């Protein structure tokens, strides 16, 4: 997609997420090295005026990084500047796959969004994030049940070892 709208969907999705969760401080995205300056400039615009969508502090404190797992596909200079692996207070605590999961589930939607007006992007992204929230809430009990079963299995194994 030609500039300047090539990042419009990413910017809209991040802005919507930040408007709902102003406590987000780290954003991992595979293309952080290409989008960071544009993203932060566009988000800064959303802090201005009486109808500001974002708090200025939210944008100022946001760190946009390449997930360390995907950073290995980038040059060493890029990794040192953009990879979460080399950033203070980031490191390996997040590989960035959470955002990858969202982008992957949204890909069919994002392909259609290129034909929408900016006002429709916001509505669509809002509805998409609400859908994902409902989907995650529905999946969570099953995920927790599997985790608990794994913990039970490990505890039983440790108990048997301690008795022998």
Oligomer: single chain
**C-alpha Rg, in Å?**
20 Å
Helix percent reads 55-70%
Q: Looking at the structure, what is the overall shape?
A: globular
Number of E-type strands:
2
Terminal CA distance: 65 Å
Mean pLDDT: 84
Tally the helices: 7
Q: List the domain count as a whole number.
A: 1
> Could you state the order of secondary-structure elements as H and E?
HEHHEHHHH
Q: pLDDT under 50 segments (min length 5)?
A: none
Helix/sheet category: mainly alpha
Largest sheet: 2 strands, parallel
| Strand content bin | under 5%
Spatial order of the strands in the main sheet?
Answer: 1-2
Give me a quick take on this structure.
With 164 residues, the chain is mainly α.
Detailed description of the structure:
By secondary structure, this protein is mainly alpha-helical. The protein has 7 helices and 2 strands, in the order αβααβαααα. The chain has one domain. It has helices at residues 8-20, 32-45, 56-61, 68-71, 76-82, 97-113, 118-163, and strands at 26-28, 63-65. Helix 1 crosses helix 7 (118-163) and helix 6 packs antiparallel against helix 7 (118-163). The termini are far apart. The mean pLDDT is 84.
Question: Layout of helices and strands, plus pairs?
Answer:
Layout: H1 8-20, E1 26-28, H2 32-45, H3 56-61, E2 63-65, H4 68-71, H5 76-82, H6 97-113, H7 118-163
Parallel strand pairs: 1-2
Helix pairs in contact: 1-7, 6-7
């Amino acid at each position: 997609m030609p500039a300047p709208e090539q990042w419009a969907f990413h910017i809209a999705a991040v802005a919507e997420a930040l408007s709902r969760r102003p406590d987000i401080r780290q954003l991992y995205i595979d293309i952080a090295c290409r989008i960071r300056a544009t993203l932060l400039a566009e988000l800064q615009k959303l802090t201005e005026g009486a109808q500001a969508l974002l708090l200025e502090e939210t944008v100022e404190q946001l760190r946009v990084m390449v997930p360390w797992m995907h950073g290995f596909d980038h040059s060493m200079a890029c990794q040192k500047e953009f990879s979460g692996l080399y950033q203070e207070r980031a490191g390996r605590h997040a590989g960035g796959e959470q955002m990858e999961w969202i982008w992957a589930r949204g890909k069919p939607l994002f392909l259609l969004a290129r034909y929408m007006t900016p006002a429709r992007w916001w509505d669509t992204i809002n509805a998409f994030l609400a859908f994902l929230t409902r989907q995650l809430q529905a999946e969570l009990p099953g995920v927790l049940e599997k985790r608990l079963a794994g913990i039970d299995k490990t505890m039983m194994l440790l108990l048997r070892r301690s008795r022998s």
